């Protein structure tokens, strides 16, 4: 990193926010924005993208003024496990159902922690699965299978 960047973590975080914000604005530019009282499909991407860009600009500006710790080595194991967990959830949701998708996703993402505990993971699976079942299936009535065709549902 350059000498004028005093906090590399804030600088890179700011660039990430600017990238996501700019991407949201770019991808939503073909949609009608509308007004705050009558929002069009492009309103949310534009507002969210603008807010992300503001946060990103603030992080970049802060990184040039306030000193921070140097960058640490990138932890690939947690990064890969969290991404895999999300992909597995997406694949399993329709085919194996909400229970299996959540349990598998939580287990995989829990392995990313340096303080992995079987007991905590099991408790998280039970509580989060019950919560999601109550909120999304019973409360909102979403058409998500509890057990998918792979599990005889």
Automatic annotation (TrEMBL):
InterPro entries recorded: DUF1468
Residue span of the signal peptide, if any?
none
The record's keywords, sorted A to Z, are: Membrane, Transmembrane, Transmembrane helix
The residues covered by the DUF1468 domain are 12-145
Instruction: Name the residues that span the membrane.
Output: 12-31, 43-67, 74-92, 98-116, 123-144
Record-given protein name: Tripartite tricarboxylate transporter TctB family protein
